[in-house]
Amino acid sequence: MDNKKLEEVFQKMRVIVVDDVAADRLMVKTMLNKMHIKDVTEANDVKEAIFKIQTAQQFKKPFHLILSNWMMPGITGLQLLERIRAEASSSNVPVIMITGLADRDSVVQSISSGVTDFLIKPVTKDNLEKKITALIEQGKIP
Q1: Which residue among 7, 13, 75, 96 has its CA within the 20 to 30 Å range from the CA of 134?
Q2: Rounded to the nearest 10 degrees, what angle do helices 125-137 and 3-12 cross at?
Q3: pTM summary value
Q4: What is the pLDDT of residue 114?
Q5: CATH fold of 3-137, please?
Q6: Taking the domains of the chain in order of start, what are their residue ranges?
Q7: Residues near 115 by Cβ (< 8 Å), separated by ≥ 6?
């Protein structure tokens, strides 16, 4: 896909970033903005994320992508993923899990829960852009 077409898709995307650390959310949001993805919503925990995802669905403005940290206090990113996959209205939304966990058991657990892809910390703009571009090219993001 050429850069102009990709930029057009990026400009139309709606993304939610879920992380309990405000600085990490800001860092990811800034990277997305540099990619021309401007419609970025933040959630500081899973409860807030679920509310925002459901509200977006109700107003017919669903998110095209969910970026979630794995390790959060209380309800984890993995539990968010399981809830997203259990809801018919959000079950097909791509979820990229951002994690420092790269061990085999964690990867297997995520895959069995329906994760779309991973980003291992530290996250870079190049890696983030490659992951999102791949999802677009695979038709997982319209």
Answers
A1: 75
A2: 90
A3: 0.93
A4: 86
A5: Rossmann fold (3.40.50)
A6: 3-137
A7: 81, 95, 96, 97
